[in-house]
Amino acid sequence: MISAGIVTYNPDLVRLRENIESVKNQVEKIFIVDNASKNIQDIRSLSSEFHITLYDFSENRGIAAALNKLVELSRDEGYGWMLLLDQDSVSTKGMVEKLSRHIDMNVGIVSPNILDRNKEYKTKDYENKEVTRIKTAARKSVITSGSLTNLHAWDKVGGFDENMFIDYVDYDFNERLLLNDYKILKVNAAELIHECGSAKRTWLWTPRKESNGQWRLERFYSFGHSPKRCYYKARNRIYYSRKYWFDVWNKFEGIYQILPQVLLTILFEDRKSEKLAAFCRGIRDGIDMPVMKYESHNR
C-alpha cells in the first residue's frame, strides 16, 4: 500500500491545495506534518476537507523530524511505501503509478524527474525515458520531494538525521541507503513539478552531463535561499563529510560544494554580506558540532 506525506511550514494555501488535488487519487491516504505554521488553522481546514491525517508540531522541529513523523504515522497504519512531498510540489498525472512499477524490497527510493517551475525546460532535455540507477548520494542524485520511499529501508538505515534540521537531509538519507546496498532509482518518464528556492535566471552557462552520457550547456539559476538556509548549507555539508568521510572524500559532495556555493552567492545573490556571514557561521558550527561516524548495518 502507498501513502503520501507532506511537510508544511507557512505554506501558500493555493499551492498546497494544488499539491493535494494532484496526488489524492494516486495514493490511498495523505498525511501532513506541520512545523508550527502561522496559518495552521487554514491547514486544518484543508486537511479536514480532504480527509487528511494532520499532525502539528508545537514548534518548528525541522524537515528531518517532520519526515520521520510522517513515516511513523504511515507505518502505524500498515503502509509499506510513502510518497514524500514538499508543500509546493505538484504530481503529474500517473506519476505514482509509473514509480510504483519499480518498487522492490531491494529498492530504497524510486524518484521522478524534477521539473523546477522557476526554470525553463525544453522537451529534448527529457527524451531519455529509461529508468536510471543513481549511484551517488548528493551529486546528480534525488531529492526528498517526489521520492517513493521504502519504509522498511527507512527503518533499517535509521531514518532521517534530525541533527541536520534542514538542507542536505535527503542526501544524507541517500548515502545511508547506498551504504546498505539499497538501490535508488529515477524514473525519467514520471515527472514532478517542484520549486527549488526562488531561483532566477543568470547569464552563466555551465556544462552538464545527462544520464545518457551526453553533455550539454545548461543555464545557471541563482539559488534564492535565505541567510538561514545558507547557514545550514555550509554547516550540514561539513557535518555530512565528517560523518561519511571514508566514502565521500573523493567525491564532489559535502564540504567540496561550499566554495562554489559561496562564489555563486557573491556573483548572483542579493543580501550578500548577510549570506556570507551565515556561511561563515555554518562552517564554524559544522566543524564544532559533535558527529558520530556512520557504519552501515547488515540487512
Automatic annotation (TrEMBL):
Q: Specify whether Transmembrane helix is a keyword of the entry.
A: no
Glycosyltransferase 2-like domain sequence ranges: 3-128
Q: What InterPro entries has UniProt attached to this entry?
A: Glyco_trans_2-like, Nucleotide-diphossugar_trans
Specify the superkingdom: Bacteria
Pathway participation: Cell wall biogenesis; cell wall polysaccharide biosynthesis
Keywords attached to this Swiss-Prot or TrEMBL record, sorted alphabetically, are:
Glycosyltransferase, Transferase
A Gene Ontology MF term for this entry? glycosyltransferase activity
Similarity-based family: Belongs to the glycosyltransferase 2 family.
Q: Record's PANTHER family?
A: GALACTOFURANOSYLTRANSFERASE GLFT2, RHAMNOSYLTRANSFERASE WBBL
What name has this protein been given in UniProt? Glycosyltransferase
What species is given as this protein's source? Bifidobacterium boum
